[in-house]
Amino acid sequence: MLTRRAGGEPVAHLTGRAEFWSLPLQCGPQALVPRADSESLVELALDLRKGRPPETILDLGTGTGALLFAALSEFRGAQGLGLDISAEAVELACRNAVRLQLADRASFLIGSWETLERGAFDLILCNPPYIRETDELGAGVREYEPRGALFAGADGLTEYRAIFPRLRSLLSPGGHAVFEIGAGQAEDVEALAARANLSNAGRCQDLGGHVRALAFTLGKG
User: Fold this and answer.
1) Is the model's pLDDT at 135 over the cut of 90?
2) 87-99 and 66-74 helices, crossing angle to 10°
3) Nearest-CA neighbor of 122 among 171, 163, 77?
4) Is 10 exposed, middle or buried (0-12, 13-18, 19+ CB in 10 A)?
5) Of 145, 132, 189, 188, residue with least CA distance to 163
6) 145-178: per-residue pLDDT in tens?
7) Where are the alpha helices (DSSP H) in the chain?
8) How far is CA 32 from CA 17, 67, 116, 147, 150, in A?
9) For the segment 201-214, what is each residue's pLDDT rounded down to a tens digit?
């Protein structure tokens, strides 16, 4: 294990587990290792839905299921759906649902962003790929974590362009969509959301003081 770690392999791959929102998750090379910065999405969702708990939650690009399970642990009357293009990631998320005793409230679907044509979700969570190919990454990230969960074109914004126009057919009236973004991407992502007729609903900073989560609602029209 020391030799593998010295080569940059993530600790979560060595131990097979990581913690997110105080939930123990099984991890592996099938999906991105959950990071503490992503908890800002859950914080923002809790603030936005205070007094109005969602009944339906969608996690786009669910990976290990971390965001979905964190939300379900807080919104105990909700049902959730996790979508991921990777069958291996979905299998991992299903195992985590059983381990966390959330299998009766969480279901999963293998597919791309376009798989769901319509829906009525009160809360959508999404940590899409947002890293530029030229960005410097921590040791072992580029080598050991799934590329499809990391990189998003020359400017890191490709996936937002693909997802934002679809939110109008997925969000329920009064619903919120909360996205993770990279450091320094807030203004660019908000501009893309405005072009898709989405209204800003909130921001949340990560532990390093960077805006890490942005929330949107459906604009008029």
Assistant:
1) no
2) 30
3) 171
4) buried
5) 189
6) 888 888 888 899 999 999 999 999 999 999 999 9
7) 2-6, 11-15, 39-48, 66-74, 87-99, 141-144, 158-163, 186-195
8) 12, 12, 22, 9, 8
9) 999 999 899 999 99
pTM over 0.85: yes
**Residue with tokens 């965001």, as numbered in its chain:** 67
Pairing of strands 106-110, 79-84: parallel
Owner of token pair 């126009």: 165
pLDDT per residue as tens digits for the range 54-105: 999 999 999 999 999 999 999 999 999 999 999 999 999 999 999 999 999 9
166: which 2 tokens? Answer: 């679809």
CA distance 21 to 148: 24
Alpha-carbon distance values, 139 to 11, 24, 26, 136, 149 (Å)? 11, 24, 21, 9, 16
What is the CB neighbour count within 10 angstroms for residue 200? 14
Domain 2-218 has CATH 3.40.50.150: yes
- 126 - beta bridge partners? 60, 179
Asked whether 145 and 176 are in contact (CB, 8 A), the reply is no
CA–CA separation, 151 and 108 (whole Å):
23
Distance CA 41, CA 179 (A): 7
Beta-ladder partners of 152: none
| pLDDT at 128 > cutoff 90 | yes
